[in-house]
Amino acid sequence: MISHWLKPEIRQSSGYPILLLGGVALLVSTAIGIANLGTNADIARRQLEDLQVTLQQVVPAEYYDNEPVRDTVTIQEGDRSVQVYRARRKGQVQAVSFRTTAPGYGSSEMVLIVGVDRDGKLLGVRVISHAETPGLGDKIETSKSNWILGFTGRSLSDPPPAGWGVKKDGGVFDQFTGATITPRAVVKSIKGGLEFFAAHRAVLLDEASGGHDQ
Fold first, then answer.
1. How far apart are CA 184 and CA 182, in angstroms?
2. Is residue 25 part of a domain?
3. Does residue 12 belong to any structural domain of this protein?
4. How many structural domains compose the chain?
5. pLDDT tens digits for 170-186?
6. Residues 166 and 183 sit within 8 Å (Cβ to Cβ)
7. What is the reported pTM?
8. What's the pLDDT band for 6 if we cut at 50, 70, 90?
9. Domain that residue 190 falls in
10. Residue 31 forms part of a structural domain
């Protein structure tokens, strides 16, 4: 106890309760700080593991022998920064993956992650967060339908620019029964992701200076 370490005259003084309270508060805050350090480390490790699992869904394992989650480059586009994860085999970047967003239901936002090979072909797409209407817009999830898998193998030239839309708008991609807004936004976001790759291809493939390596 703190009081055991203090001299009798101090324990009998009028300021003793304040001193004791301050000591207890210091001990408590120190204990909380130590606990938070451990908790934060655990959270960071789990987030890294979750991210690694997600990247594996959009870039097949045969494309890399490195750890893409630790091989990144950050691209600055206007007021937004895009962190890109690079998949290398024998030192050469074979594919990249990165997040892209689309406006979702109400004022929400859908977050997607796309994998693109060095030729600009989609290796995979997953929606990692959204707030779309259950039974309608949530068909963008692989657990609800295989719709999102239909983008694998596509590129900016397949389909041609005019085809990058839902069928209701003259494009080649299916919309959902009773829900067109969600797939329309996702298609636009994925096309934007491919355009982002094309605009920064040399940097993303580590073939030119630029961006910011991590």
1. 5
2. no
3. no
4. 1
5. 999 999 988 899 999 99
6. yes
7. 0.78
8. very low
9. 59-204
10. no
